[in-house]
Amino acid sequence: MSDRGLIVVSGSIAQKPWHGGHTWVFLQYLIGFRNLGWDVLFLDRLSVDMCIDSEGKSCRVEESVNMQYLRLVMQRFGLAGAYAVICDDGPCIGISREEVLLRTSRSALLLNVMGFLRDPEILESAPKRVLLDIDPGFGQMWQDLGLFETFTGHDHYVTIGENIGQPDCEIPTCGMRWITTHQPVVLDLWQPDEDVGNRAFTTIASWRGSYAPVAYHGKMYGLRAHEFRKFFSMPSVTAHSFEAALDIHPDETRDRAALQENGWNLVDPRIVSCDPWKYRQYIAGSTAEFSVAKNMYVETRSGWFSDRSICYLASGRPVVVQDTGLSRLYPDRKGLLTYRSLDEAASCVQELCRDYRAHAAAARAIAQEHFDARKVLCRLLQNLSIQ
Questions:
Q1: Lower CB density within 10 Å: C or N end of the chain?
Q2: How far apart are CA 369 and CA 356, in angstroms?
Q3: 204: which residues sit within 8 A by CB, 6+ positions away?
Q4: CA-CA distances (angstroms) from residue 311 to 72, 162, 314, 359?
Q5: Torsion sign across C-alpha atoms 11, 20, 185, 30
Q6: In terms of Cα–Cα distance, which of 144, 152, 178 is closest to 163?
Q7: Residues in Cβ contact with 303 at an 8 Å cutoff, skipping those fewer than 6 apart
């Protein structure tokens, strides 16, 4: 074990195989902590009903593409001996359950992303349990409405909803003291490339995602689909190329048709972002990002900023993103431009294209200043009273 000790991170790489962007969320923490001199351990969990083989059929955990994908990622990022998958009946794949309990008991903290880890024995073995909320608004509203207790059994609560607790933020605190954090990016793994590939504004996103809209205090808080429809006409309004690696169901025929009729090029995210390397390559081949946030993030003024957009910035690719309360958190004139309306979005795109090189340089500078994993994770550990 390193001089600094061990940090345990719990997440869902095996649960969501071949989702490169989702995988990067956890890699930024694992590799970021490791670069600071910590040993790391990644914990995932799988039930039999999550596991499929290469033909999409149910199979045993050990034989699943879920495990194949996790092993590939862990091996290629130097984490082959630093993971375990907790199965339905308690045993682990990777390191043994006994070793997981021993390492966790000796750790500085267990960072439980979105409460993915639910094993009570492992949770109780951790000296410090920290829940990391990366989907602000949904869990807090569910808990406040008594629908689901997302935030229980931990010592500290951290969120990327950086405006939580502010007067104009509509996310309930649920009576908890929230520690806010930027999201980290390991800059060495995202190097700028002056060669702009397909010269389109791109994004990688889900149309609806896993959650339903939430009715809270007489107001409906919705999904990305509800916001994206307001910006269908961006290609025709700006006369620039727009492309989306959009996870949208084939049955969404009306929205798919509207996107294509308005000039959006839709590509299959299962091809261009199916693993961390293709995801990174797709971002590097973009001119910039144009993205739309979930209605939940926008309406609550959450201060949410996408881990995906941070990867664009680190790659020297400017971003034009919907304002979720970001304008008071980060500089938004060069490299990062925020909008609230279609007209503002179009103006941001035109401004970026007028001086692209300056915006590209500023994008990388913003990543270095605000999202460098070394800075972000050091600050997080300080806020958790860990040296």
A1: C
A2: 20
A3: 21, 244, 245, 246, 269, 272, 273, 279, 282, 283, 308
A4: 21, 18, 5, 15
A5: positive
A6: 178
A7: 136, 161, 162, 163, 164, 166, 169, 180, 324, 325, 326, 329
The pair phi, psi for residue 41, each rounded to 5°, is -135, 130
- Domain ranges within the chain, ordered by starting residue: 6-184+373-383, 187-370
Q: What is the pLDDT of residue 3?
A: 58
Q: Are 351 and 290 in contact (CB under 8 A)?
A: no
How many Cβ atoms are within 10 Å of 184's Cβ, its own excluded? 24
pLDDT in the model for residue 237: 96
Name the phi and psi angles at 382, rounded to 5.
-60, -40
- What residue type is assigned to position 380 of the chain? L
Decide whether 6-184+373-383 matches 187-370 in CATH topology.
yes
Cβ-Cβ contacts under 8 Å for 366 (sequence gap 6 or more): 313, 330, 331, 335, 336
Nearest Cα to Cα of residue 13 among 78, 92, 71: 71
Q: Is 51 helix (H, G, I), strand (E, B) or coil?
A: coil
Structural fold of domain 6-184+373-383: Rossmann fold (3.40.50)
Residue 204 backbone dihedrals phi, psi, to 5 degrees: -125, 120
User: Do residues 157 and 178 lie in contact, with contact meaning Cβ atoms separated by under 8 Å?
Assistant: yes
340 vs 28: CA distance, rounded Å: 29
Do residues 336 and 360 lie in contact, with contact meaning Cβ atoms separated by under 8 Å? no
As assigned by CATH, the class of the 187-370 domain is alpha beta
Beta bridge partners of 132: 113, 158
Looking at this protein, which amino acid is placed at residue 270?
R
Read off the pTM. 0.96
Q: How confident is the model at residue 325 (pLDDT cuts 50, 70, 90)?
A: very high
Q: Which residues pair with 237 in a beta bridge?
A: none
Would you call 135 exposed, middle or buried from its count of C-beta atoms within 10 A (0-12, 13-18, 19+)? buried
Q: What is the pLDDT of residue 89?
A: 74
- Give the HSE-up count for residue 334: Cα atoms under 13 Å, Cβ half-sphere: 11
* 36-88 per-position pLDDT tens digit: 999 999 999 999 888 999 988 999 999 999 999 999 999 999 999 999 999 98
